Structure prediction request, 245 residues.
Amino acid sequence: MILAAAQTKPKRGNIASNLLNHYQLIELAAQNGAQLIAFPEMSITGYERENAMELAFAEDDYRIDHLKDLATDNNIVIIAGAPILIKNELFIGQFIIAPNDSVSIYTKQFLHEGEDEFFQSSFDNNPMVTIEDQNIAFAICADIDNPKHPENAAKNNADIYIASIFFSPNGIPNAYRDLQNYAEKHQMNVLMSNFSGESWGSPSAGQSAFWNTKGELVAQMNDSDSGLLLVEKQNDNWISKISKF
Prediction:
């Protein structure tokens, strides 16, 4: 099994440019044999609050059609984030695009302070995927601040916990601490994808990372590069590779 965390520098509100970057990184991940690629929180638009409604995606938005094609052509699961409108309510969500042309949506369950002015939270959209008998659960940013979230993933027999985040340099030490603890406590492998550069007018911390079920930090990117963190499962061990972009 090979998984990829994409570390990107979004252009604020520039959906076309951000999607092109997604396409390029998906192709790079596929060239490295990845079966899944996860992007950061609201990766297609960049993290937004005030402008989220005008940037929002529909559940069946035509703008993800090429992502669906790439998933099928490359036999890869794509996790790409956006503000998503569901029944006239706006959510921080992500499209989980499978190679069989199916799309499911995960919605953020626990919001940061201030996000509730613009977004709803929901526990109703909580899909999992399975690759090589490994159950994979998903989280978006502040979800990882609440220990109930990874606990529920573990109760659902998750083997791998994937967090798509936008954390600042000030916040990333807490994210590292919490994700390491969750990996060890729940014996889940944990993959985290964060922006590098700036989003929403604020710096991002980068440092996308992977922890094994012992809570050991297997690999991490630095705070400024964009590219892929690739991890490969070999028997009971994981090896890593960083591909800068």
